[in-house]
């Protein structure tokens, strides 16, 4: 019999090293390769055992044969991660300039990355059967010494019967469960769940909801998507669904999802920006598709749950997968449609480790699979809007609110300059006209929503006598006063301190809060409207798991009269009885150094305005401002996203800013700013050597970041820019490879397509 050639698995491991790692693989008795790409395996790595993903199989390894180690454990019961998932990981690694393993392994739920948990993950529910793999028969018996009586009894029993259930197995040998799973890992035994169910959420039966009749605009949008779903020949261009708030974008998604699910086995992926929006949307989907298995994926799930949901998606059992940005990295072998709701939302961008944009990866994924993707928003990102203008995305427009009785709210400005004696007219930050409007809603039994993007009681505590202010000792930032918790808190490094009873510098007892946060507004309202039921929704009031949902439920149930909140309340929620939205302090963002601040503010205000007047009663939006002439507000009063976007794009083009150029940031931090700056200077010099430099790529001077110190680290950055994305990509890959070999005491990372500059 010919000797089979050597065989090696090339495995991706979670390390910053950009190579795959080779392991020798033993053939099974029949000469066919026992391992395939995409399989999860556990391999020795240094002194540890670690989980990796097999990326390719090869008959030749560069590693000297005495150094190469053997692959011993593979998770054979798990279908391999499909080729399109692996392609997505490769793309993300390449695009964001990271090592493949650093991308692929963290994309898996934690429980899948521990081999000890594998047997249980697939077998948690349902009765189990153990079936002998015909290829395992001789190997299994051969592996057991004659003196291992109990183990041999189990093996022989299994060989004789072909399958055993858990009780039969235990009767033969007390350690049967462990042994059978070990043998399964060797590929000798197959574990089967009788009801083949690793995932079935026993959700309470819900009232099934019938679909409403689509409006003409909704119908047209749906038909375009449906046509793309039917066409199999070419990859459809992404759809940009631009619909005013309340225009019923969700209904278009639901119809598109229903159409996609007509294909046998097909899966759909629906992305939302905020964890808090998933329960609401999950209900909507469960009601509409009561027979389909739905899995959610977001960071709020317990690890075990997340692993089960992920597996349900991976095995094709979950046909609807609904999640936040991390869901875009899930394995979805039968993916047929992707929906990205609120596509403009900055939360789609991950701000740590792999700094990816879930929206951008979703677009890539759809393109690669040749399936439709729907990007929905009332205020699309300028990037997506421009692509639609260029015809690269297909624009679908909903101009009207969907409910026959809902109209867009009237937006008015409260001019604080004109209110005269601004300070006196403002009772703790709330102008008289706004207070009057709230009182009116209270009298009518309607709800008001007050929006203020600043949590805490006051952004800073100050001493009038000597000028002391509460600074964070570890950051170049202020400590925020949290009165109800009696603490000062740094929102950047998390430092907490007691509220000093007197000024630490001069002993003055009269320390005063400066400025206003949500807590202070809540306090003012409580004083002003003692009988009103007031709730505050921000990151502080919703720290406990489930508390945000509970508060939102109260609002929906009408148990709240006045809701005060940060951008958490602005997004997506369909409040039926809110007829007044008050915007308390939006001006701060008008003059930010960040060129995207205007775009973000406009979309936030449009979003929060969209919470008013959604059902029947007309809505009103009041915006307090000192800059009533500002063009951003003018566009907002007209509900004119297109006009606003055109103005912004013209400015960006003039200034050669994104989307007219492409950017990356190299960021470095160290104990001393000089160390960070020196590394960046070295990096810049390196990038300008003839070997790397590109005429199309500009490297700017290293500069300290605006918030230079956080948690005792000093931070600096270097901007890289190019009008050509491929040129930028090519430059970055050569540059980063060299940077990896550069010695420095600074920690550094690269961010491609940064959102905050
Ligand atoms: P958007 O996400 O575009 O802001 P929603 O999807 O939340 O809007 O829809 C707004 C409201 O309009 C919801 O209460 C929804 O039930 C209702 N709605 C959507 N489509 C229709 C329709 N065709 N007929 C009647 N009501 C609709
Ligand atoms: Zn003082
Ligand atoms: Zn701090």
TrEMBL record:
Q: Which positions in this protein are listed as binding Zn(2+) 1?
A: 463, 466, 503, 506
State the SUPFAM superfamilies in the record.
Answer: P-loop containing nucleoside triphosphate hydrolases (SSF52540)
Q: Which CDD domains match?
A: DEXHc_priA, SF2_C_priA
Q: Does the keyword Zinc apply?
A: yes
User: Could you tell me the EC number(s) of this protein?
Assistant: 5.6.2.4
Q: What class of enzyme is it?
A: isomerase
Q: Which UniProt keywords apply?
A: ATP-binding, DNA replication, DNA-binding, Helicase, Hydrolase, Isomerase, Metal-binding, Nucleotide-binding, Primosome, Zinc
What's the superkingdom here? Bacteria
Q: Which residues bind Zn(2+) 2?
A: 472, 475, 490, 493
All copies of domain Helicase ATP-binding, residue ranges: 230-398
List cellular component terms (GO): primosome complex
A GO molecular-function annotation: zinc ion binding
Show where the Helicase C-terminal domain sits.
494-665
- In the record's cofactor note, how is the cofactor described as bound? Binds 2 zinc ions per subunit.
Q: Which family does it belong to?
A: Belongs to the helicase family. PriA subfamily.
State how it assembles. Component of the replication restart primosome.
Q: What is this protein called?
A: Replication restart protein PriA
Q: What is the lineage of its organism?
A: Bacteria, Pseudomonadati, Pseudomonadota, Betaproteobacteria, Burkholderiales
Identify the coding gene: priA
